[in-house]
UniProtKB/TrEMBL annotation:
Pfam families: DUF6589. Residues 8-29 form the C2H2-type domain. PROSITE patterns: ZINC_FINGER_C2H2_1. This is C2H2-type domain-containing protein.
């Protein structure tokens, strides 16, 4: 190789790619380079499946923790950026709905919409119902709670008209409850939900892992469940069939995501 080009072994021709050089030698000089056989058995013996699995879990935990922290702090920019990191993971693990959601969010915030609407979408990712710091809630989670309450309020209403009528009554019901609290001189809720501490559980698990030397690199070590054996890099081969999935679930109508049954 000289100046970034590959020289032919039989003539003075040079090529920028190895594949083109091989085709030239096979066509002009009737020479086929021997294929390099990879020793898969030796490579498998050098792997430590237990350590790879633990490292993968720690990376995925840090990835999701980053998203939870961004939601608690109301940082929409980190939340949108986390969707870009989690999109390949959802695709590899078969989470189709989350994959479509991440793709839709990334598409809207990557030049599809005007700059002012994009900034509004990125900034308004959370809602705070209780007040105070670290009490934010993701908007999609809040919508899920509203959907649950709406389904409870509309229990037994199976027709389309009854469901629409009950859904229109639900906001008025919330307003009535607020007025009832004011008339009855009931104080607003002051209690806050605190997340439980998992420090002791984490310390116990870490102690058990250290006792069995799980974080030491031991070539040839395996784990019983082969489905949990994955590479250290969670993004390796994670984009496989992602373009096909996006193509099959592409929106036929602007601003709507419809699944085509013919695919």
């Amino acid at each position: 190789m000289y100046e970034g080009r590959f020289h032919c072994h039989f003539c003075l021709n040079t090529y920028a790619f190895v594949g083109t050089l091989k085709k030239h030698e096979a066509k002009e000089h009737n020479y086929n380079s021997p294929a390099v056989k990879k020793d898969k058995k030796k490579k498998k013996e050098q792997q430590d499946n237990l350590l790879d699995h633990l490292l993968l879990i720690l990376k995925l935990t840090a990835l999701h923790k980053n998203l939870d922290t961004a939601v608690d702090m109301g940082d929409g920019f980190i939340s949108v950026r986390s969707a870009k990191y989690e999109l390949p993971i959802f695709n590899k693990t078969g989470k189709v709905k989350y994959t479509i959601g991440c793709t839709h969010l990334i598409t809207m915030t990557s030049g599809t919409m005007p700059a002012d609407i994009t900034e509004r979408l990125v900034a308004n990712r959370c809602i705070n119902l209780q007040g105070g710091k670290n009490n934010n809630m993701a908007l999609d989670e809040y919508v899920e709670l509203l959907n649950r309450d709406s389904k409870v309020a509309a229990t037994g209403c199976q027709t389309k008209d009854s469901i629409l009528s009950k859904s229109k009554e639900f906001p008025h019901l919330i307003n009535f409850i607020k007025h009832y609290d004011v008339i009855s001189e009931m104080r607003t809720r002051k209690g806050f939900h605190h997340l439980p501490s998992y420090q002791k559980d984490v310390e116990k698990v870490a102690k058990d892992l250290i006792d069995i030397k799980a974080f030491n690199n031991s070539p040839g070590r395996t784990i019983k469940c082969e489905e949990l054996c994955m590479d250290r890099n969670p993004y390796k081969n994670s984009a496989k069939d992602l373009s096909t999935l996006i193509f099959r679930h592409r929106p036929r109508v602007p601003f709507r995501r419809l699944r085509d049954r013919h695919f």
